[in-house]
Model the fold of this input.
Amino acid sequence: MDPEKCPRPGRRRRSRCVVAAVLLLLVAVIVAVSLALTLRQKTKQFHDTFLSRCEAFKGYDCQKVWTTFEQAYVGRDPCEVPVENYNPLIAAVPFKPACNRVMLWSKTKDVVQDFAEKTACYMTLEETLLGFVLDGLTWCGKEGSTETITTGCPDWSTCENNPVRSFWLKVSAALADSACGDVTAMLNGSIAAPFSPTSIFGSIEVKRLKSPRVTSLNIVLVRQQNNVANCTNASFKDLQKELDQGIKYSCKDVPMSQIEECGNSPEKPCGSCW
Done:
């Protein structure tokens, strides 16, 4: 056999390396394209959810609301979106005064939402346009990007100025600012300290209730089988210290069963549930 016609081992190895490199590059391109398409699809789903929820409220230009919303965080470091970035959004969708109807809550979200959905007595944050549209959603932006991102965003406590946290702090303050007359707050009697000064209710909402615009704050302490607190709980003394002078304070222990019964009997007068 002519030795010059035999494949050289070095050339064969180089050929294999080239083929392997091409295959790896092809796989990388396919993965990148698939990831880009998936992220784009999730962004579209978020956008569509936003608009469909917004359109349940009449009289708003929902595309304009979306554009204003995106301006708060798109193209920004997801840990550098302060509360003030949502000021234009609140200006575009202002909270209307809600006298004697605002219901605040802390660690009782499911109970409050179930009750509010079944009756027309109270208005929660999640029943306002902005609260309803973004309830349960996650979003952020990224420097150099013009897209809304819905995966890999900071958790609530990852950094202080993340888009979701700043949004809920801002709209919670706006709801409290819109409250007037009698305000109700539903708190959890199954924890050692129903009132926490570090919760949104304690650190934001209570501090925004001002007399004479607000005349009273009525606490409904939800009592369950594993109840560990009542209206004499020491944490409520801290709550009363935070209240603006001139706002009357009251607290009632209300069994969960009573709240559920009222929710299932919408014909009952609003004040009769507790």
In short: The chain is about 45% helix and 10% strand.
